[in-house]
Fold this sequence. Notes:
The protein is mainly α. The chain has 11 helices and no strands. It is globular.
Amino acid sequence: MIDIGTIFLICLIIYILVKRRDLIKLNLRIERMQYILFIVFVIFLLFVINFLDKKVAFMISSSYPQGLLANYPTLNETLTDIFKVITRLGEPNYLAFIALPTFLYFRYKKNTKLQTLILSAVVIMMFGSLISTILKAVFMRSRPYQEWNNFGFYFITDVLQKRVPYNGDYMSFPSGHTMVASCAFFYLAMINKNIHIKIFWSIIPILVALSRVYLSYHWLSDVLASLLLGLFLAKKYRDSLDPSSLNDLS
């Protein structure tokens, strides 16, 4: 059964396709310095995968039986409940549940600037969701709860050869929740000129990333990749839009 958030998301997407197709653009041209930064990031990510992923998962993942929280079941349960709420800020349908009523309110108030802000945030959010889904299908990494002692990269070739099933248990890299949150909230942070609001928006993707590791759905490298890729996509999307449509949105 389709939930209300999904219906809201579909309504927003249809409206954008019909009325605001000008917002559907993303220039991914990479400059020389960005290539260098990308190489540095890949090296850093390989270090995290090989030396930190398992250690961090074993320490803070709520489901790992020998983790630090195994001896504190009450605290573990409380934090799990908190992070289950936070992690939903990386779900497009949950964000649409907030975005559509807000958009309708600003439409009623005839505030075209804030309408554009909300719709553009939805667009980059969906770009992030699409790109993360494609990458998941390429890398086919097992989630921590699936194989605690395995780095888990199987790639699409292993699926085609039927060595692993094509399902969510093997779609850990990158984190889709973190990617969605990074694209949407880092974009909002970039658009806003108020430093306090910038910090507020920027903290949300980091909390979502932490929640994904804590709830045992992702390795540390999964969420780091999503945070940085989401930041990159948010900046590229902001630069792709007509500057006049973004003026005075703070």
